[in-house]
Amino acid sequence: MRKHMAWRTGRQTVQASLAVMLAVLLIGAGIGCGDKGEQDGAGQQQAGRPKPGGSGTDKAAADKAAADKAAADKAAADRKAKEDAARGTLAHIGHTAVLYMATHGKAPASLTALVDAGDLKASDLVSPLAKDTPRGESHYIWLPVPMACPADLVRLHENPAHYGGQRTVVFLADSTVKEVTKAELDALVQKTKDWLAKQGE
After folding, report:
1. Under the phi-then-psi rule, with left for phi > 0, alpha for psi from -120 to 50, and beta for the rest, what region is 2?
2. Which residues touch 132 (CB under 8 Å, ≥6 apart)?
3. pLDDT tens per residue, the chain (201 residues)?
């Protein structure tokens, strides 16, 4: 009887010990899962936050770049429109001068003579690129070439200052209007002056 009770008591002690160990294991597992869940949640929250200097800064930089490009495109379009208008004014003055020569039999001494004759208005001699004209200089430069002359001589050209001193537009003796570099202009003007000088000999 005593032996049976001792065995039973030992068995209960072992069962109690196993229960305690199982409880400890379950509690430990629960704590570990909880920690992992908290870590995962914290990681997700961190991932959801914008990084310093991230998307917000990138968007601002992209917006600024787009605005700068739009401004540059508009400035380029405005400049082209003014250059086209200046080219048209040059052609108008040149053709008016040719008609003057056909009527009077000689080239006008200056562009002002076309205004005095009523063929042009004073405003016609103002280039759309006038703001780039140095003080005291003409917007358009006239060379009194007669009707009968080589086709590639220069009758009229725009002030190169309007094009940064690097290029300009010319009206040739054959009524061609074209853009030339400053070096090409200098060569054409010198050729025209040399030809005019020979006619005066």
Report:
1. alpha
2. 159, 161, 162
3. 554 454 455 555 656 565 556 555 656 655 555 555 555 555 555 555 555 555 778 888 888 888 888 888 898 998 899 999 999 999 999 999 999 999 999 999 999 999 999 999 988 999 999 887 777 678 999 999 999 999 999 999 999 999 999 999 999 999 999 999 999 999 999 999 999 999 984
Contacts 24+ apart (CB under 8 A), 181-189: 185/154, 185/157, 185/160, 188/152, 188/153, 188/154, 189/143, 189/154, 189/157
Indicate whether 72 belongs to any domain.
Answer: no
Distance of CA 109 to the CA centre of its chain: 43
The count of structural domains within the chain is 1
Domain that holds residue 173: 78-199
Provide the residue type at 163 as one letter.
Answer: Y
Question: How many angstroms separate the CA atoms of 1 and 79, rounded?
Answer: 117
148 lies in a domain? yes
Q: How far apart are CA 114 and CA 38, in angstroms?
A: 91
Helix (H, G, I), strand (E, B) or coil at 97: helix
Spatial distance between the Cα atoms of 7 and 13, rounded to a whole number of angstroms: 10
Domain contains 18: no
